[in-house]
Write a structure and sequence with these properties.
alpha/beta, Rossmann fold, 19 strands, globular
């Protein structure tokens, strides 16, 4: 059985035999590209019972809908859906009792943005990861690009970037259905815009390839993917000897060692180039849709830190990583629990230069999505921000940078029912 492996296969390895009209991934992607974000959510929600009662598609359904929920800022639903893909009902509903005795009493906390800036002059290669259903993870990379540019970084490798979007840099903005599936999410789109603005050379490295699955060597195709990723990045480093590179990847690709026969991209990269990357993980200690599934250290540390921005833990002047992950990566970033204001997650306001635009009440219509687009972006741009309007009695806001915007209101079918311009 051949596997086509890349970020286009989303969270799991999907064989060509599974790609059909009934596959939830195909449904969600097709609806998003043809009729928009709200239509994708609507169509997936309408087929929920069919998919969750299907052993073949249950996990895939929860993964794709968690991702699309994250595209519209519905983080709680995104987290809950993702948790349902990989946990049972008993574990999700048990009462959590957090033992904080393992947390060091003398631990200190540092703003993660400042920390990455402070170490960047000492490294040629920095790798930051994300969970694909967690929008805030893109903010960390986005917000350090400007300072890292000043420190000599000039290449940005993005796992989610489609190699088929060959005119991204010329066009100057990400495009729905073209730049990469996860980049359809507004924060990810803004990360790409920030990279272009800061004059990074942005390149894809997760290249599509064919692989024959072998039951006797189940990790062979996975290893081949990791090696292809590392080789593509190594080519950039070798061809540009004065370059400094940032890599934004998914999940465990940044592991620098392994105890299994599945070697990750960062370890291969070290072997190939001799460069020891500085690796920053955001994915092992995260907020969950069901608090019972959160690691004890996450709850204890976020409460103790009481910070509104992502942070790194220090003990006796050195980075402290939770037990079990030391050596896999260099630093663990913790994000505080998400809070909401005006139906929007507060982490969006941690972006420099972004502020709230309160949507006029006379523009609010139930069961619609309101999207903000920069006026100079014309070919299916990824929205700068968007929000679904559930109840018109509430106050809603878009989180936008300075600029001139076209605001478009669409219904579940993707039809435009209102449009107006604003200047932020």
């Amino acid at each position: 059985m051949k596997q086509f492996i890349s970020t286009l296969s989303l969270f799991i390895l999907i064989s060509t035999s599974l790609i059909s009209q009934t596959n939830p991934y195909k449904l969600g992607i097709d609806c998003l590209e043809d009729n928009g974000y709200y239509n994708a959510i609507s169509q997936l929600e309408n087929k929920k019972e069919v998919y969750i009662n299907s052993p073949q598609f249950r996990t895939a359904y929860y993964q794709i809908i968690s991702t699309v929920y994250s595209f519209v800022g519905k983080d709680s639903l995104a987290f809950q859906s993702f948790d349902k893909a990989f946990s049972n009902e008993e574990s999700r509903n048990k009462v959590s009792v957090f033992d904080t005795s393992a947390i060091l009493t003398d631990i200190e906390f540092l703003n993660a943005f400042d920390f990455i800036d402070s170490i960047s002059s000492k490294h040629r290669l920095i790798i930051i990861n994300e969970s694909h259903h967690t929008s805030q993870h893109r903010i960390l990379t986005k917000e350090v690009l400007a300072n890292l540019k000043k420190n000599g970084f000039n290449f940005l490798g993005v796992e989610a970037l489609s190699p088929l979007d060959t005119n991204l840099m010329e066009r100057g903005y990400p495009s729905v259905g073209k730049t990469g599936f996860y980049i359809n999410e507004p924060v990810f789109g803004n990360l790409i815009r920030e990279g272009i603005k800061e004059d990074y050379t942005i390149f894809p490295y997760d290249l599509r390839f064919e692989c024959d699955y072998n039951e006797k060597r189940p990790n062979y195709c996975k290893n081949l993917r990791e090696l292809i990723q590392a080789t593509a990045i190594a080519k950039i480093l070798n061809n540009n000897p004065e370059s400094k590179v940032i890599i934004h990847c998914g999940y465990d690709h940044l592991f620098e060692k392994t105890e299994t026969d599945w070697i990750k991209m960062a370890e291969y990269l070290n072997i190939i180039t001799g460069i020891d990357p500085f690796t920053v993980s955001q994915t092992k200690y995260i907020e969950r849709g069901y608090p019972s599934l959160e690691k004890n250290e996450y709850a204890a540390l976020t409460e103790k830190a009481n910070m509104e921005v992502p942070f790194i833990c220090f003990f006796m002047g050195e980075v402290w990583n939770p037990k079990g992950y030391d050596g896999l990566y260099d630093a663990q970033v913790f994000w505080p629990n998400i809070t909401y204001q005006n139906e929007r997650p507060q982490y969006l306001t941690s972006q420099k230069g972004f502020s709230r635009y309160y949507i006029p009440s006379n523009r609010l219509k139930p069961n619609t999505i309101i999207q903000a687009f920069l006026k100079n972006e014309l070919i299916k741009p990824v929205p700068i921000d968007q929000v679904i309007i559930d109840e018109i009695e509430k106050i809603y806001a878009l989180i936008l940078p300075k600029g001139e915007f076209t605001i478009i209101v669409k219904d579940k079918e993707g039809s435009t029912i209102d449009q107006f311009d604003i200047e932020q």
